[in-house]
């Protein structure tokens, strides 16, 4: 079987699994789980085979004319290189883990069949984006992902939070897709083809006449899909969906698509220094703003959502300084540890019955209930904080190295100011990332003796053992967690070999970036720990008077049950204020702004939502009070005349003759008057 055929089968298998799952979900429910898991696992095996066979050799490009469209044809094309085959392995691995994990996580969900089918379709759409060699075919996968995200984020449609989040995610990403679509058309018109290799050839030969305009239009779609400032506000709210969906969106699909798109077409963006500057500024604001917001959130999933936004900012920053190898390397490592973080958080949510870190911090035995989730979460958080020797250290340092290299003026087509912007923002974000990762672990998995002291302070003298109704993690869920812990821990050791798969750019960090990056991360860890100990001591002297964990916390049968039991965790401030939260001490007066995402949603509501609603109200008023009034009047006059004429039709001949005679007399009088006047 040829390499191209194998590549075509990789997205085709999940697609067929999705179709079969939708058709057989009601009639043959016993086939739903095999149809969800097996096609995705087989796609993973084929993706690995494609990656091994493609290797570090020249890119494979094959296609056939899909349909004649005039001057710029559309081809059904496949483009395979080191970037695409490794991203496809990541997508299929994470999707397989999510599908296996979901068999336990959503085992009692009545809508599991439609959920599993949509996850498979989501996976197929992302694989189409990764393997596609034609921009128009890529656009199909791009849009299908947006539709799937709408349904998956709104899976718990009974809750108003999920309904609002799904609608917001769809509208915001579609807002970015409008300039993205225009940019693709403009790029195809300039290059004379939608084939990616043809576009890159045109960029290399200087045939693109409007590179800045095209790049800025494309960045609109990238900002929406990859949740970059200012179109990032949909991603934290999307946490109202099931946790496995969050893992899939954040680690391997949807948000990764924008970064991958820029990496694939980076030579086009490098033709415009203005576009690179905009990308760098967007990445810098995204990194710092999201890290500050993550430090203030109480909902564990919102913390992880803001962390995803920040890590995507790192990738965008690497692309802004012209190093797609560092961007894709961080995309790979982030996919591993972020999927692990969300899936481990899902276990914790089930066991705790809430998403609130404030509530979790008061639970006496949470860590002992779910030890596998806590240990693997610790590994993933260490990778997120970029502590050596975890994978996040190597990939984050490669980004900082690329920024340092550009700041020194060594990167062609990249202004040194762009490099300095990314470098400074990346170093500050390294400090903040370590801080919020440490805070999350301390609040969700603080030592039992500390919790015992807090509970005894509140009048409790003993810590009861877990009861029989406590949540027991299914074996498949724990197995998935430990499987993902392997790349989260060890993927960084591949840094020396990955340049052979990419464009040959070295990924080894320099001594300066290593010392600064690790030093700032350690400062973030130590300062957060000190703040936590200080707030713990202060909380021991001041009664909490808020949420205290009950003697035995009921586990949630489904995440929807946890949401229903604790609806406040999806509000602006999740749960009750916790005096032992180190984030409040670290942020100080910034906390009130950071917890609300610095008011961007409020700003957008005033600037866009309210004017649109007001305009819609005006249109409604004009339609009902003006247009309908005119229509009713226009129809009422003929009806009135018809009524008068109908009353005149009495059927009496004498009446008709009398009216005829009277009319004749009137006409005669009028004729005389007119004649006399003349």
UniProtKB/TrEMBL annotation:
Report the main location listed first in the record: membrane
**Which one of the record's GO molecular function terms can you name?**
oxidoreductase activity
Specify the NADH:quinone oxidoreductase/Mrp antiporter transmembrane domain's residue ranges.
132-403
Residue ranges, annotated region (Disordered): 448-468
Which Enzyme Commission number(s) are on file for it? 1.6.5.-
What's the protein's topology in the membrane? Answer: Multi-pass membrane protein
Swiss-Prot/TrEMBL keywords:
Membrane, Oxidoreductase, Transmembrane, Transmembrane helix
Annotated ranges, domain NADH-Ubiquinone oxidoreductase (complex I) chain 5 N-terminal: 68-115
Give the residue spans that cross the bilayer. 6-24, 36-56, 76-100, 112-131, 137-157, 169-188, 208-224, 245-263, 275-296, 303-321, 327-352, 373-394, 417-442, 475-495, 507-532, 656-675
Give compartment(s): Endomembrane system; Membrane
Q: Name one Pfam family in it.
A: Proton_antipo_M
What name is this protein filed under?
NADH-quinone oxidoreductase subunit L
């Amino acid at each position: 079987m040829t390499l191209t055929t194998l590549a075509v089968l990789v997205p085709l298998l999940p697609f067929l699994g999705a179709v079969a799952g939708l058709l057989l979900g009601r009639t043959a429910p016993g086939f739903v789980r095999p149809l969800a898991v097996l096609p995705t696992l087989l796609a993973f095996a084929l993706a690995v085979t494609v990656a091994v066979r493609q290797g570090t050799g020249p890119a494979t490009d094959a296609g056939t004319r899909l349909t004649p469209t005039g001057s710029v044809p559309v081809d059904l094309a496949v483009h395979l290189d080191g970037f695409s085959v490794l991203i496809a392995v990541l997508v299929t691995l994470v999707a397989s883990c999510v599908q296996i994990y979901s068999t336990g996580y959503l085992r009692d969900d009545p809508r599991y069949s439609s959920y599993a089918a949509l996850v498979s379709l989501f996976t197929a759409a992302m694989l189409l984006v990764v393997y596609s060699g034609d921009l128009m075919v890529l656009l199909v996968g791009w849009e299908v992902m947006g539709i799937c995200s709408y349904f998956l984020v709104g899976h718990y449609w009974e809750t108003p939070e999920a309904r609002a989040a799904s609608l917001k995610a769809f509208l915001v990403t579609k807002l970015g897709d409008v300039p993205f679509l225009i940019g693709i058309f403009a790029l195809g018109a300039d290059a004379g083809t939608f084939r990616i290799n043809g576009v890159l050839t045109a960029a290399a030969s200087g045939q693109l006449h409007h590179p800045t305009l095209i790049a800025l239009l494309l960045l609109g779609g990238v900002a929406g899909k990859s949740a970059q400032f200012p179109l990032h506000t949909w991603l934290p709210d999307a946490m109202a969906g099931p946790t496995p969906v969050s893992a899939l969106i954040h680690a391997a699909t949807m948000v990764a698509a924008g970064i991958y798109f820029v990496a694939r077409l980076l030579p086009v963006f490098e033709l415009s220094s203005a576009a690179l500057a905009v990308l760098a500024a967007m990445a810098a604001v995204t990194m710092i703003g999201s890290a500050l917001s993550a430090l203030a959130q109480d909902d564990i999933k919102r913390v992880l959502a803001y962390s995803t936004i920040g890590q995507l900012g790192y990738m965008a920053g690497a692309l802004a300084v012209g190093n797609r190898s560092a961007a894709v390397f961080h995309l790979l490592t982030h996919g591993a540890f972020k999927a692990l973080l969300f899936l481990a958080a899902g276990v914790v949510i089930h066991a705790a019955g809430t998403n609130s870190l404030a509530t979790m911090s008061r639970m006496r035995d949470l860590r002992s209930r779910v030890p596998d989730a806590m240990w693997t979460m610790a590994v993933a958080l260490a990778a997120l904080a970029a502590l050596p020797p975890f994978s996040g250290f190597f990939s984050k340092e490669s980004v900082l190295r690329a920024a340092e290299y550009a700041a020194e003026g060594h990167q062609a087509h990249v202004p040194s100011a762009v490099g300095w912007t990314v470098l400074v923002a990346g170093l500050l974000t390294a400090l903040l990332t370590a801080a919020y990762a440490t805070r999350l672990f301390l609040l969700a998995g603080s030592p039992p003796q500390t919790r015992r002291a807090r509970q005894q302070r509140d009048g409790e003298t003993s810590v009861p053992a877990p009861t029989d109704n406590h949540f027991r993690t299914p074996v498949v869920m724990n197995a998935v967690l430990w499987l993902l812990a392997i790349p989260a821990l060890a993927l960084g050791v591949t840094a020396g070999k990955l340049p052979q798969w990419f464009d040959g750019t070295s990924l080894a960090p320099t001594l300066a970036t290593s010392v600064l990056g690790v030093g700032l991360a350690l400062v973030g860890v130590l300062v957060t720990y000190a703040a936590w100990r200080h707030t713990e001591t202060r909380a021991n002297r001041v009664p909490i008077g808020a949420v205290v964990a009950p003697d035995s916390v009921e586990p949630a049968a489904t995440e929807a049950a946890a949401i229903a039991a604790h609806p406040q965790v999806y509000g602006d401030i999740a749960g009750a204020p916790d005096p032992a939260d180190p984030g409040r001490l670290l942020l100080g007066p910034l906390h009130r702004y950071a917890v609300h995402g610095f008011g961007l949603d409020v700003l957008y509501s005033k600037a866009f939502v309210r004017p649109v609603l007001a305009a819609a109200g005006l249109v409604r008023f004009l339609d009902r009070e003006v247009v309908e009034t005119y229509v009713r009047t226009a129809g009422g006059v003929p009806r009135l005349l018809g009524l008068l004429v109908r009353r005149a039709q009495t059927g009496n001949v004498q009446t008709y003759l009398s009216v005829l005679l009277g009319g004749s007399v009137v006409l005669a009088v009028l004729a005389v008057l007119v004649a006399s006047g003349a």
